[in-house]
Amino acid sequence: MKKKMGDDHTNSLPDECLALIFNFLTTSKDRNNSSLVSRRWLQIDAQTRTHLTLNAELDLQPFIPSIFTRFNSLTQLVLRNNVKYHCSIEDDDIILITSMFPNLTRLKLCGCDQLTDSGMAAFSKNCTKLKEFSCAFCSFSELGLFELLDNRSQLEVLSVERLGFPEREVLSSPPKLHATKALKVIKLKQVYRERLFIPLISVSKNLKTLKLLDCHDGYWDKALEMIQDDNCLTEVHLDYVYVTDVGVSSLSKCRHLNDLRIVGTDCTNVGLIRVAQNCKGLKKLYVGSGIGDEGLIAVGRHNVNLEELILFSVDATCDSLRVIATNCQKLVRLELCMNHTITDNDIMCIADNCVALKILSLAGCDVSNKGIEAFALGSPNLAEITVTNCKKVTREAIDRLRASRESLVIKMGSSKTSAINIDN
């Protein structure tokens, strides 16, 4: 039979085929628009949607049964609330939601200011398959968090930001943790009581990623010292955390370490040298102030497999950069920000020796046209260069470089733009 113009041609497709097509819709907006086409599309969208993000305000309560009855295949759920304007859902609500989804593997809570430790303990027993848990700006305390850890032996990823209140002391002593064997990622941001998290870090034997960010209060050396010798750590980020050479030197026992960030700490060359000498598989390194030539020379000598190097406000000169440029022949990304000791001679050394370099970023460095124009012939694999707030570099020099290497992507930013990628 000849089909009319208004016929729905997808009616001839089995539900399974239409469901596969829906899986190619990557945004919630596309999903929502498609579900409006027909009742059949609405039903298939509900049956195949595995990710859902909701505003977790208190007025969500009446709609919880209908929403979560419709989307009965969810495995990943994000509940967000703006605590400045609205109260969030409460304990009974999160308990009901998690009871309806025994297959939930990923849960993120943001701004849920009405959830308590009792609610955490109760709903964590419903999430028997939970592998990733993230919370930010929630009002429950560490007690509720550790209840979750003790109930969920399969948890692999834990991310905590601004938990509870700094002035409220909840636990008088560190908890006894039993269910942490599966933990592979721990990210702590703006947490206030480091002594409660130190046991968690030390007993997580399969931990691969540890990120401590903006944890200004507390003394975190102890957490790094207690990492076991047979650890699995491959990635460690220490950003604006009170850590000294004692803690950073302890990372030298992380023989699998390949990604290290040390920014805004009290670390000096001493700690970096210990790491460079023992962690020879290092591929990504981001260091900040407090580091100078001595530490970077050790990196150049011992970490010959280095692929990415970011120096932020570091006292580096041609002495260390020459060693790195000569020995680290696999270096493909180099970013220099606010390094006022770096001059044209250093940049010319990079252009002459870094043959594998693909991405170069310069921000706030004391380089001129002479240094930039060295890349007209140097670093033959260079694909992108960004120059930001380098006052001695003119637009004319950039134009000449662009004319000599037409395939090279050149970006020249203003003083308000940072060329350095600070991604946590």
Automatic annotation (TrEMBL):
Record GO biological process: SCF-dependent proteasomal ubiquitin-dependent protein catabolic process
Pfam family, one: DUF7885
A GO cellular component annotation in the UniProt record: SCF ubiquitin ligase complex
Domain (F-box) ranges: 13-54
Domain of life: Eukaryota
Name of this protein: VIER F-box protein 2
